[in-house]
Amino acid sequence: MTAHPPPNPSSPRRRARRGSGEQLHGKILDAAKQLLAETGRAEAMSIRAVADVVGVTSPSIYLHFADKDSLVQAVVADLFGELGERLGGGTPGEPPLDKLCRQGTAYIMFALESPEHYRLATMSASTEIGKVDLVLQTTAFAHFHQTITECMDAGIFAKGDPTPVALDLWAAAHGIASLLIAKPYLPWGDVTEAADRVMRATAMGLSISEYLGADATPADFVGWRASLPPR
Amino acid sequence: MTAHPPPNPSSPRRRARRGSGEQLHGKILDAAKQLLAETGRAEAMSIRAVADVVGVTSPSIYLHFADKDSLVQAVVADLFGELGERLGGGTPGEPPLDKLCRQGTAYIMFALESPEHYRLATMSASTEIGKVDLVLQTTAFAHFHQTITECMDAGIFAKGDPTPVALDLWAAAHGIASLLIAKPYLPWGDVTEAADRVMRATAMGLSISEYLGADATPADFVGWRASLPPR
DNA sequence: GGCGCTAACTTATCGTGGTTAACATATCGA
DNA sequence: TCGATATGTTAACCACGATAAGTTAGCGCC
Questions:
Q1: Does nucleic acid strand D have an atom less than 7 angstroms from the CB of B16?
Q2: What's the confidence (pLDDT) of residue A57?
Q3: Residue A126: its pLDDT value, please?
Q4: What does pTM read for this prediction?
Q5: Where in this protein does the record put region Disordered (chains A, B) (predicted)?
Q6: Distance CA A165, CA A178 (A)
Q7: How far is CA A114 from CA A26, A121, A123, B9, in A?
Q8: Which of A27, A96, A100, B150 is a Cys-bridge partner for A150, taking CB atoms 3.0 to 4.6 Å apart?
């Protein structure tokens, strides 16, 4: 069995119509996502496996994607689209910091729902210069951006460019999501609570950090904290 | 050139003495670390490449490591040992929260110095039950643990089990380290400042979060913050 | 109807990588 | 000296990513 088996001789897959080569493109993407979701292992998404699922030979993949990395990136882009949609909703009039924490937790939950997709999305090399601000242009990031701006208007953060704040909060969300996925056996306790706790702590910390001034040392904070009335 | 070339026929590597098969074990580990550090790419550390560097044929690796994953895990364990040593030092009498932030930043810097090692350490699957608390038993984690206990004694955190606090802080450190490695092109600004900022914010946030009470909502925080005198 | 163009595939093949089975040999205790 | 065995090597298998070259089906056109 050294040769790869043909797709399925009994049902010879009908070749796509002349202009509709894009059909296969979509099917390949779906198959790749499905393989990742079902097996849960990134290495299971081989070009050959994807081709088998679609019912096509492996070189056909290369008619629609330049190489494996392109396929992975396409899957990831698709995923981030879904994430953006999910972060969009929310009750109007929701306090901005509540909204920010909710979005952060939603981000983490999304990552936990499709851990292999998330791993690929955040842990691939992809140091390509061309895609410099690919992340920053996702709708998910735009939603974060928007909510942070609302927080600034509410006086929770100092007014200015929301991007640094967004990056710091994203780092916190990514950190807990990533570790929950990679080290699930650690004593995290309830996952939702852990996610919520870290997001709240980071958001509050950034706010207090700005309140105390960017040049405040940890010792300054300790002194200030000691001066707070007990609750 | 389909066959693999022999190591080096001109200098026939002396076989190790009867009891010293462990020599090769160490050399393999060094070679694997070296390949990762030099090339900076995880895929460059193939079994065959490691064997070539050592001057041995690839199947010999399997006399000392069960499979590639075992070799990777061994490299990672070695790395965490180095990390633990580095986190150990520090001036006596250093305020505990300063120490905590310094250790967090040192952790992040360590990750940035050997990004591929770090990627392997934190992003591999390794869901093996046997190694349940492998991370928690590293000296690096022990140092975090110790410093957090000192913070608790200083009233910065509520007294109790340091492990949850350590995990949350570790998540923050890992998040920023991981993103700095995976997405270096994002506008992080100065890397050291970013690391320090996130660590400080998270530590302060956890402290304030405990001060306000675990059940405090983000809205509670906003109300409390608005009551603070302007600085 | 038939003819050619070409999009949409397949077949065959290459090189690399992880892993294993079978074989070889140097070392060491008895 | 001699056999047991630790310490390797040779040869091979199979899966994978990728490419080159061949094939076929749909479509416009006369």
A1: yes
A2: 96
A3: 54
A4: 0.91
A5: 1-22
A6: 20
A7: 20, 11, 14, 50
A8: A96
Please answer whether residues B24 and B16 qualify as being in contact, where contact means their C-beta atoms are separated by less than 8 angstroms.
Answer: yes
CATH number of A18-65: 1.10.10, 1.20.1630, 2.60.120, 3.30.390?
Answer: 1.10.10
Average pLDDT over residues A187-215: 95
Task: Tell me how long chain A is.
Answer: 231
- How does pLDDT run across B25-69, given as a tens digit for each residue? 999 999 999 999 988 888 899 999 999 999 999 999 999 999 999
Q: Is the pLDDT of residue A168 over 60?
A: yes
- Tokens at residue A40, please? 């849960």
Residue A134's closest chain B neighbor by CA?
B186
Considering only the beta carbons, identify the residue of B214, B217, B228 that sits closest to A211. Answer: B228
Domain range A70-213, CATH architecture: Orthogonal Bundle (1.10)
Give the residue range(s) of CATH 1.10.357.10 domains in chain A. Answer: 70-213
Could you tell me the pLDDT band of residue A80, with boundaries at 50, 70 and 90?
A: confident
Residues 100-119 of B with CB under 8 A from A: 100-101, 119
- What integer pLDDT is reported at residue A149 of this predicted model? 97
Q: In Å, what is the CA distance from A187 to each residue of A176, A179, B161, B178, B219? A: 13, 11, 12, 21, 28
**B123 neighbourhood in chain A, CB within 8 Å:** 119, 123, 178, 182
